[in-house]
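Entry type: protein chain
Record version: 2
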Amino acid sequence: MAATFTDANFDKEVIKSTEPVLVDFWAEWCGPCKMLGPTIEELAKEYAGKVKIGKVNVDENPGISSRFGIRSIPTLYLFKNGEIVGQMVGAQPKASIKNKIDALI
């Protein structure tokens, strides 16, 4: 299951993570975000133990959203060693997301 990242735990869970992290910035009211949701859950299962995958609700966590300049959702960020190493905006096909993740590990 995908993790839930918040303003409170983001640095610990994402920036200081020893494994690569995929972060899905989303909101409850966002149609494309809801379409992407099941894909994120599938990826979380497939990459368990290799890549940490989680979601940030932009409405509930405005600090993280503004820190990274999130303007449109869904936005996916890939982090490695605390640095952003990839970004995808809009609902992406699963294969595209997997390609980006596989390039990291």
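Comment: The CA atoms of residues 26 and 97 lie 16 Å apart.
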